[in-house]
Amino acid sequence: MARRDLPEINAGSMADIAFLLLIFFLVTTTMDVDTGIKRKLPPLPDETNQPQESQMLKNNILVIQLATNKDVVLVETGAEESGQGKTLEIYKLKQFIKEFVDNNGKNIHLSDQPDKAVISIKSSAKANWGTFIATQDAISAAYKELRNAESIRKFGQEYEDLNEDQNSEIKNIYPLKLTETVKEN
Amino acid sequence: MSRFKKKKGKKIGAISTASLPDIVFMLLFFFMVATVLREVDLKLTNELPKATEIKKLKRKSLIMHIYVGSGKFGDLKGVPNLIQLDDAISEVKDIGPYLEMRRARVTAENEKKLLTTSFKADENAQMFFINEIMTELRRYSPFGHPISYTTKKQIE
Prior knowledge:
Strand content of chain A: 15-25%
Helix content of chain A: 25-40%
Strand order of the largest sheet of chain A: 4-3-2-5-6
Shape of chain A: elongated
Helix content of chain B: 25-40%
Shape of chain B: elongated
Number of helices of chain A: 4
Oligomer: heterodimer
Number of strands of chain B: 8
């Protein structure tokens, strides 16, 4: 029996089908990736590892207090009397942190050395998350600029372009030591 | 003279559309691969704060989400300080079990500690409540816990 030739399937509508799918995926696509400020939460302290804040010189601790006011924070270095801190607008915070960390003992109220500097965020119970993020952002920005400057001075490269060894070397010069506490009331 | 006859009468052939499906398919595959279908229905208001010093989160399988905000619908409308885990409004005490459950789902043993929380809190959420959540996360993470305070990008 002679086989009949199969008629060719018309592929003209293939494009239409593909277009339909394409439009569906175009509409449903959300290409935003989560972005955020990265931190690491420490485990809860127990009897064996109590915080050792008392051993540190007080001028090495920068206390940033957050209250309900969104635009200002209260900064205080430990060398000053408690409650004697000054209010600072959030947009000036980055500059202040840079001065505090990169002080190298020039001002006795600020840190002795970048790797001894500790930043402590103390928020009141009613403070907003937005204020906290703005503060964290300022801290990150300050450290990024300090590390970048050191990296260019030392290796002639931006901090982000460094290899792993160089990166950790810079990180050891400017380690970010941060504590976050919330007052309970 | 006839050698320089003008080509006036000659028609341009129709453009072949045979490769059109190929082009469309290529675009289609790109979008199929790039697509992330929205994974949860948000039951909270979630206006993220803005920041500049942000980094992208990679490895979707190693990310768990915690949403914090005030209720959007029904009885919970306007109730401040609520948590959403996956699709359900939850309580602070649910966070620990949820974290353990997500950690158990990571198969590679050395990647368990890389499980990162994408912490999506509304900018008006209050710190005392955030603190309760953080304490809970820390309680269930004896070796520390990577976290990303999720924000939007600040446009200068």
